[in-house]
Amino acid sequence: MIIDGYQARETTLPNEFNPNYLKLYYGKLFPHSDLFKWMCYGNDGKHPGCDPSYLSRREFSYTLDNDIYVRFQSFQNAAELESSIKDKCPFKIDIGPVYSVDPSKRHAYAQSGDNVFTPVERELIFDIDISDYDDVRYCCSGADVCLNCWPLMTIAIRVIDTALRDDFGFKHILWVFSGRRGVHCWVCDGKARKLTNEQRSSIADYFRVYKGNENSYKKVSLTGHVLHPFLAGAYSDVLKEFFETKLLTSQNLLSSEERFEKILEMIPDQSATAELRGKWQENRRSSIAKDDINVVRWEQLKQLVHSGKYKAQRLHRCVEEIVFSFTYPRLDMEVSKHMNHLLKAPFCVHPKTGRVCVPIDPNHCEEFDPTIVPTLSQLLEELNREGFTADVDGEWNKTSLGSAIGLFRSLFLQPLLEACKKEIETSYNAKLKHSKDLHSW
Amino acid sequence: MQVFPSHTHRNSSLNDAVSLPTIPLYRSAPPLEVRLEEFESFAIDRLRVLKGISDGLSRGKKPEEMATLVKDLWKANMRHQHASEVLNKDIISHFVLRLVYCRTEELRKWFLSIESALFRYRFCEQGAEAQRVIMEEFDLPYKATSNVEYESVKEKLVQVARSLGQNSSTVDAIYYKVPFEEVPELVAGRKVFLNQGWAYVAMNQVVSLLATLFRSQLSKALILTNRKWTSSIKEKEKHRLAPIVEALSSSYLGPDYSQPREYGEISLKDIDQVVKSSFPLCMRHLFEKLREDHHLKHGGRMQLGLFLKGVGLNLDDALAFWRAEFSKKVGLEKFEKEYAYNVRHSYGKEGKRTDYTPFSCQKIILSTPGAGDQHGCPYRHFSEENLRAALSRMGVNSRATEDVMNKVRNKHYQLACTLTFEAIHGMQCDAGINHPNQYFSDSQKIFQQKVDSSLKFVFKTNACEL
């Protein structure tokens, strides 16, 4: 849990968020039917293979005004879901797992003792918070983000998204801005939803390169003769270029003594560090270089390490280790490891910033700008300007939420529902065939 | 599983089945009749093996050391005077322990992980031919990759092998292509090449695939056994097997420290003193960080909070303790709103009302603290410098410190902690440290003895004066 010692900058804007606005937002703009269709995974259709209880076994939970937390809400159909949201007007909606039985009736099953109330399906989820990067960003800290540090999120999306698709073969992946300081990822393929906790942990660990905690300065440890293909790919396709062309200069990683000392610490050879330190302390006095000082020093560091002059064990790995330390995605591991972790639903409004949790297109994630994501008050203003009409398909089309919902549908929901339909048909046909075979015996 | 009535002799056995693999997969209960005394004694022998493996693992033994340990344990405990009975003993003891360990989630988890480890080490001990027979027994639906396919990904496979420190010349040429879900352990360690959801498992990694299958089959079987136990066996065997089964499970698991024992409650006013004298480094560190920052992240709160519960801090004191610190940082209101619930929750007063047990060393060592986290095992998660500084603050002298560091370098984190304990208390700790709460109670016991003997001394001197 992160403590908000100070208020985020955005909150100083007046009236970004208030319960009355929220009521209107849920009434006029929130894409209830899209959320419903997603959560049904095709089980709302007419096909005889559909599981009509699927949605009702899903846990939703609400954070209401005054931090009242209501867990284990469940809904039978689209109308129930929509009217409950409109009625309760939650500050936050969280989505939990699909349980073996309707979670609102869990007590009825508790008596039988045999652990019947248990999570059976859940999207594979990831949560990345910029506040976990505080030791490697100098522009902001805590919940603040700016355009200098946000790209850390962008490359996290690129690295994780690529691996989820290429390595694990997942297809239905939704990335969402968490409303303030990070991103959420929902992997929704059928086989992702059915993963056990152990399998979830193994995926989270596959992504993990950080060892140790605050008390161990070396954050990344890369072993072996070469990097695993996944890490090698992330390094050469994303991290290296980002570090050298963006992060070095945008965060001034080597400009001052305090900052370059932090990087020198990661070089496992005392004399090599001493040589660089000497050079850089002098360099500061003369400041002849026309090029960016961070880039110049980084080149010097790489040259020295690769020159063969110093022979400390593992010296050759430290360039990669430094780049990984500063750029590699930092996942909140616990979120991904367990089925029963809750995660905020897309299109919620962040109560501190008033910003909507809109989807992010992973193919164009570098174009995403968290500082221009529509806010609640902005949306309502747009709505007012256009005048209220009785549009059937929601009024979001007239607001800047339109493109976000459009993206959600075209990029994620439509392909997902097509796949679900196929899956339901295939498994139904297989079942039919199986029972036919049984009869013919 | 069926339990057969006790008879003085056995009328069928398995030893005529020659083609059986050397390690049984325990697919079905043996069609044997078991004498009551064998029922118990075989189980105890196997338990010695399992307990030995569990201890070895929690002491952080290396894979090679574990392999020797398992071999020795098996030899010492699982022999039988009749060679023909060895396999039967193996099978019977396994099925008896299934009964013993099927009855709670906690017991199942332990049994499952140790039996799977046992299977793994035994499999690795087998020769290539025996391994092949066992593999066939599993009836894997996967085929070795064809030459064409192998060539197409060879470069990546070599890269993975080299990333694991193998020489490219020794890279296996036989790979099985399996869904990544089947080999979580290889995925977690990035020990396989993954492509489109398929993991390329080298022949020498197949044991991991088999161990996973073994485990999942056993896991399902344990659930079934549990159902049978609760629905019929328990009642039917109320006077005969049930008491044996119940005694077997509790006698070997050791205390879980969920209820404070022996020294009763500690109170808030003594806590600073007790921290210095009797807290293991992991808890002392969390405590000091909390006093310093007036805050701990979730992992730290759980690790320290449950430990404090285990040493006897009652709920009211615990709330007062956390409130006093956190309110300095986040304010009283935020504490009551966001943190007090968790404190009550860990005492089983909220939510699903589970009375959580304090973390064992194994759990703490295996935790994965991230940036900003303070929890974990200092011997494992601290840098060398930080650990040295921490040890010297605890009053460990430089010679003992070197011994501790030596253990740390060899990844014997619990032994490192044991040495620290011995250095501070000036006494041997033969049992080793397996649980932070055990560290605490052993330490308190020593101080209690010291107090007792000095009291006696005072009394004696007084008596002389009289």
Taking the sheet with the most strands of chain A, its summary is: 5 strands, antiparallel
Label the overall shape of chain B.
globular
How much of the residues of chain B is beta strand, in percent? Answer: under 5%
Q: Total strand count of chain A, please? A: 9
Order of helices and strands of chain A: HHEEHEHEEHEEHHHHHHHHEEHH
The overall strand count of chain B is 3
Q: Please state the overall shape of chain A, judged from the principal axes of the Cα atoms.
A: globular
Largest interface: A-B, 47 and 45 residues
Estimate the mean pLDDT confidence of chain A: 88
The rounded Rg of chain B comes to 26 Å
Q: Report the helical percentage of chain B.
A: 55-70%
Tally the helices of chain B: what do you get?
A: 20
| Oligomeric state of the chains in view | heterodimer
- Portion of residues in helices of chain A? 40-55%
Low-confidence stretches of chain B: 1-20, 457-466
Structural class of chain A: alpha+beta
Cofactor (chain A): Mg(2+); Mn(2+)
Protein name (chain A): DNA primase
Pfam family, one (chain A): DNA_primase_S
Family (chain A): Belongs to the eukaryotic-type primase small subunit family.
Plain-language structure description:
The complex is a heterodimer of chains A (441) and B (466). With 441 residues, chain A is an alpha+beta fold. Chain A is 44% helix and 10% strand. Chain A is built from 15 helices and 9 strands. In chain A, the strands form 2 sheets. In chain A, strands 1, 2, 3, 4 and 8 form a 5-stranded antiparallel beta sheet that branches. Chain A has a 4-stranded antiparallel beta sheet with strand order 5-7-6-9, sandwiched between helices. In chain A, a hairpin with a 4-residue loop joins β6 and β7 (182-187). The longest helix of chain A has 40 residues, at 401-440. Chain A starts with 18 loop residues before the first helix and ends with a helix. Mean pLDDT of chain A is 88; it is low at 1-14. Chain B has 466 residues and is mainly α. Chain B is built from 20 helices and 3 strands. Chain B has helices spanning 36-58, 63-77, 86-101, 105-125, 128-138, 147-163, 184-188, 206-236, 241-253, 271-278, 281-293, 298-311, 315-330, 332-346, 361-366, 378-381, 384-394, 398-409, 413-425, 436-465, and strands at residues 175-179, 193-195, 198-202. In chain B, a hairpin with a 2-residue loop joins β2 and β3 (198-202). In chain B, α1 crosses α3, α13 (315-330) runs antiparallel to α14 and α18 (398-409) packs antiparallel against α19 (413-425). In chain B, 36% of the residues are buried. Chains A and B meet through α7 and α8 of A and α6, α7 and β2 of B.
